[in-house]
Design a protein that fits this description.
The protein has 79 residues and is mostly helical. The chain has one helix and no strands.
Length: 79
């Protein structure tokens, strides 16, 4: 009986640990993805065929986090 009790708690501990690491990794990935500035750039087209007119190969990827050509969108009604 003690072997089953210990085995059950080991199994529960492993499941909880696995869920914890998956959640931690998911949050870390989400934080990195929220740093991608493409959606707020004036060169971003929001079209699946050509996402960015300046750097289409790195648009919406981690490489775009420090994009040198980033220009914030401006309201065309102000001019």
């Amino acid at each position: 009986m003690p072997i089953c009790f210990v085995s059950a708690w080991v199994l529960i501990t492993m499941v909880v640990w696995s869920l914890w690491t998956a959640t931690r990794d998911g949050v870390k990935t989400a934080q990195k993805m929220h740093q991608i500035p493409c959606a707020g750039c004036q060169y971003f087209t929001d079209d699946h065929r050509l996402k960015c007119t300046v750097h289409p190969s790195i648009a919406n990827t981690e490489e775009a986090i420090n994009c040198m050509d980033y220009q914030p969108q401006t309201n065309s009604m102000l001019y």
